[in-house]
Hints:
Blueprint lengths: L9 E5 L10 H10 L4 E5 L2 H10 L6 E2 L2 E2 L3 H25 L4 E5 L6 E5 L8 E6 L2 H8 L3 E5 L1 E4 L10 E3 L2 H12 L3 E6 L14 E3 H10 L6 H12 L7 E5 L5 H6 L6 E4 L1
Parallel strand pairs: 1-2, 1-11, 2-8, 5-8, 6-9, 11-13, 12-14
Antiparallel strand pairs: 3-4, 6-7, 9-10, 13-14
Helix pairs in contact: 2-3, 5-7, 6-7
Amino acid sequence: MSPTPSEPPIVVKIGGSTLGGNDTSLPDLAALHAAGRPVVIVHGGGSVISDWMQRQNLAPTFVNGLRVTDAASLEIVVAVLGGLVNKELTALLQQLGAPTIGISGLDGCLLQARIANPELGYVGEIAAVDPAPVNAIVAAGFIPLISPLAVDVSAGSDHAGQPLNVNGDTAAGALAHALRAERIIFLTDVAGVMDNGGRVIPRLNARTAEELRRSGVARGGMLPKLAACLDALANRAVPSAHIIDGRAPGALLDCINGRPVGTRITP
């Protein structure tokens, strides 16, 4: 059964840290597609990028959970995200019977971004999303698998028209908002958003999620995830965002079936 193009898709962000030997997220995604649910996947690959940088004697550095990307690092980011990781995941999903088309945010100018913080180098802040390529892939019965690269649309930039690195969570949130997704789910390597005592917070609204960001309770890689959730939920474009432990077997299907896993954030 092919997904119905008119049905809002489920946007799922997966990262390299959640794809282990016991992980079931790819079979879960294949099962969703087989059941006729339109799915859009955005993938990261930060750990693989760091591995390849270290092979080139480049030290990965981060500011507020975002990777600093100079010219040498950008070449590795484009090769790893747009090539190696994207095509390996495409092949794995197709082995599971899920017809998948792997693209990047560069294709069809899907993701357009500007350099907003020179301290981060060639890292883009999303300026616009053109969901037409994703809608076309979904309407044709495929799963779009998207790597978070964007076209630089910075006015007057010598780098204009070239690739920019975009945080995968940021890309997923912006894409979910543009698609007016049914929901967005972030598969990560923690149980959810934690309070000061290390306990999972099962439910948040946009206001309390923003307070967590500003108070310093949320830190590191959770900061861009919460920001992406808030971006997706803005103007009630998406009804809910979920941050769940992607290492737990069946976590994705549990979340979609309404079981209490991880943290659910609503407008």
